[in-house]
Write a structure and sequence with these properties.
It is built from eleven helices and six strands. It has a four-stranded antiparallel beta sheet with strand order 3-4-2-5.
Amino acid sequence: MSKLGTIGARLHRGEIAYDFVGKRKIWYGISILITITAIVGLAVRGLNMGIEFEGGAVFTTPTKMSASVAQAEEYANKASGHQAIVQKLGNGSLRIQIAGIDTGQSDRIKQELAKDLKLDPEKLAADLVGPSWGEQIANKAWQGLAIFMVLVVIYLAIAFEWRMAIAALVALIHDITITTGIYALVGFEVTPGTVIGLLTILGYSLYDTVVVFDSLKEQTKDLTKQTRFTYSEIANRSINGTLVRSINTTVVALLPVAGLLFIGGGFLGAGTLNDISLSLFVGLAAGAYSSIFIATPLVADLKEREPAMKSLTKRVLAKRAQAAAAGEDLAEVRATAGDDGDDGAPAVVGPRNQPARGRGRGRTSGKRR
């Protein structure tokens, strides 16, 4: 841990750095490839919408069932003629979801399920869910998402600048697209919990992005008055300066979510936890990635197109070329004089100022007595 802290301090001071902005075309290519894969997954497989959005019936068995999840799924499919989703709850009971059935079908399916599972029909709980409730939640979620993005763009444009607002918006769309694409590819059920998770990750996605933007804003004050660094180089220093902080924040946030997803939902079998935990896990990871590899490099791309930044880049490169040429001239003078500079003392070029002689020789102060 102390070694990681040392690396973080050196990154913050600019002693070491990784060229994130310089390699931005690689990150853009990776992001485009992942985004296309997510969009294809959405187009081909689609989202597995939960019963709250499609309507149907939910049957819950008593605890300590002898039938397995696979057997219950087979019985439900045969009784309903629809694809059923069966989950084993923490208390040992089974939750059987069948979408697209009405009240009459529900009563018939309940009787057949009770017979196949060797249960008293009265002990098999049945709940009907209408699609209007889930549709209302989805509509409100889309409205909230649209309002959120508009407010974020306005705030970032005022607090920072419009280029940063555009970059943050692109990063948000990137994160949401990847998260929904993962849901389509994995086949997890989309429930109201999933919608809540998607809306939650928006704040996490913006957090790291705003931290880097704030550092970039501070470091680029009066940037055009100097000729040491270009805007892209300052942007890269901002990413490196906040890199360890972003990693630590993301890891700490991912650990409990990973516990819910892999231990609670996978190992312990609490499948209902998967609804929100998968969206949070993928969204947190995508948000950390986009803040480092997408948002800030995109801001640098947009800023470098400004005439003032183009002029700054030319001045910086010209000054570096002059410094390199001066270094070559000094090396040439040393070679001509037969001095290879190995003694550590630089070769003297031009006249030297000789100390005055004869004044105050032998006296401590140099004044005449």
